[in-house]
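ok so for the tutorial part 2 we go from a plain amino acid sequence to predicted structure tokens. step 1 is just haveing the sequence, like this:
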Amino acid sequence: MSRESLTAGKGSYSVSPLPRFPTAGFDADRAESAPCQVPSPSAITKPRGDIRGLPSLWWHDALVPAAGGIKWFQVTWDDEAIHLRVRPRLRRRWRAAIRWDSISRVCFKAENLLLSDGIYIFTTTRPESYVIPTEAVGGSDLWEELLKRRLFDPSLAIEAMAATSEIFCWPPAPT
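step 2 — the prediction. this is what the tokens look like for a chain of 175 residues:
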């Protein structure tokens, strides 16, 4: 990611483009539904503690929270569909409904300890997948529901939960 420097009144501010939800190494162009957006200079706050050179402006949204989950991403479901309500800081809010009967494939991307694991839900209704962090409010419960509905293989789920930086999909890709 390239860094840009901005000067606004008193002081210098740094900002990097806001990243997509952590999808490195997993066809991010196909898996993410919302493009990256760079905030306007008026929305930028001076970083209060860069970690590894990444501005705290977006670091908050990318890291796994210490407690309480990713509150800006909420997942609920009923008998008909999964409902996503996403309100990230400094980015466009959005909602989506994923019908259970439209799910064609589910992938689990195991991440390292700093990033949230991701649930990728592919449907027959659009070419992109939906990416749901397991640390989202309701994310781990959704993972259990996907297993109960047999939309992901339970034995593969056990292997996925013990892994880091790997992708597991069900059903497997045709050979």
